[in-house]
Fold these 2 entries.
Entry 1:
Amino acid sequence: MSNPNDSGNNESNIAPGSRSNSTALESARSDMVERQLRSRDIRSLRVLEAMGSVPRHLFVPPEHAGEAYTDSPLPIGEGQTISQPYMVAAMADALLLEGNEKVLEIGAGSGYQAAVLSLLAREVIAVESQPALADVAHERLTRLGYGNIRVETGDGSQGWSANAPYDAIVVTAGAPYVPPPLLEQLAEGGRLVIPVGPAKQQELLRIVKREGRVTRESLFACRFVPLLGRFAWPSPSSAQEPSRG
Ligand code: SAH
């Protein structure tokens, strides 16, 4: 196995200097695609290619960069996690993206999933409720050159009406129920992929809107950090913080 631990792991060190380290990371990444994705049920070549191209080690804190290509979620600060690679790929797959879509992601976190989606669609608007995470994600995505992603700070359980409707919406935190604004902001033919259920375990749902009606399909069981907001779980602090800006 390659050892991504000796990469230096400094995000600003990505380029030419560390050729052997970046080769090791690239091989860890292609192993991830083969063993965790292709050998399971991820069939879309576009999704496999996108997963093989985004440098996940640059989206996790330096102390976790060595584990970036392992089969698990990782902490990203503020009590949040970057999802397991398989989950990112399965959600992208479920959105059935062909390349020309406007996508809304709720729960930008590290920005990793937005980066993957940005390679599969025309435009990604990624909403994150925690300003500290949104700032880091925005700065990172800009530095890495992902030009078709906008990071917005706010409560994504209300969607992001300014740019609606969306061809695809993905929610990367567990919701107690499907937030009505997300259904409203879905375009005709649009897909919403969202984990719904109790805090400890949810079902990943795909909801499709056609002629104003929705159909829902349950994909598999999963477990996500909670979606906190107006049309979601109540915030653990006594009062909901008003959104900034
Ligand atoms: N997709 C992310 C990981 C998401 S973890 C990645 O690739 O790194 C879930 C994220 O949802 C957390 O960052 C959390 O702060 C955020 N979140 C929780 N409730 C939210 C809400 N109502 N609106 C927007 N983001 C929310």
Note: The first strand starts at residue 74 and ends at 77.
Entry 2:
Amino acid sequence: CQLNDYAKKVGLKYFGAATDSPGQRERAGYEAAYSKYDTILNDPKEFGQTTPTNGMKWLFTEPEPGVFNYTEGEIVATIARNTNKLLRCHALVWHNQLAPWVEANTTVWTPDTLRAAITRHIANVAGHWKGRCYAWDVVNEALDEDGTYRKSLFYKILGEEYIKLAFTVASHVDPDAKLYYNDYGIERPASAKTAGAKRIIKMLKDAGIRIDGVGMQAHLHADSHPTVDEHVQTMKQFSEELGVSEVAFTELDVRIPTPVNDTSLQWQKEAYRNVAAACVQVEACVGITIWDFYDPFSWVPATFPGQGAALLWNEDFSKHPAYDGIIDVF
Ligand code: XIL
């Protein structure tokens, strides 16, 4: 009984795990673990989809203006090809992990020069992987916690027009990739941020610009996570109400204050199970991606000190109770 096999039996397109290109994996000193890690990652019964956690971001793909580098992204794209996985490509326009030259104070952006830079970036990067991406996260994290637009460089210079531009260019460059808006904190139906995501869908649809999906990152907390019903309602708002053809959980992990105990692991199990149960119930939900699967390679401990154990495989490659929690609802 393995995750992707079960997910497909109940009608999902995939259960996947993101992975980093080896040179970028979060923790050094794990060379000996890589062969076990790779065996699990590569197993199509376990994971039918992958996403590069870093290699396709602007920092790596266009480190200098007009100079493109696909080495890191290709590593994960190649893993996907060799192990028969769908590839979610991530992410074209995001305020983080931008190349320094984009953010440098020395660059004086005007609306025209920034439009040209965004267009060139998407044309090249999405052009490079054209036909290989099941989906692209076209715009990532454009919203602040209160649901208004994040005051990123892109927003400051272009306003919401940058979102329209990004989706328009992506739709021309890779007509077959599903185009997603992706964000965290949009898993609950009544949150201000969820309302913001709905505004983005509506803005694009009203302008006649293609958006196919909404990605709910789902970086969740074990001790206060959405219920099945909250997940279901949110997904229905995006799909049935606003008309995107698909939704997906794109970066699922469930962090726990460390050290973990039996209680917190049970809460985590429930959080994972709720996501899986909800995805099964909603027609538009195509799949679930966990943000890596092996705790030592998770971004959580480095980013949120005092929290960890967010994934499904422990350091010694035993599994969290949450693994069976997911299998149970499939
Ligand atoms: C994270 C990566 O996992 C880390 O390795 C990196 O240092 C920072 O970015 N939302 C996203 C992802 O869309 O790209 C982020 O990935 C996690 C939050």
Note: The chain has 13 helices and ten strands.
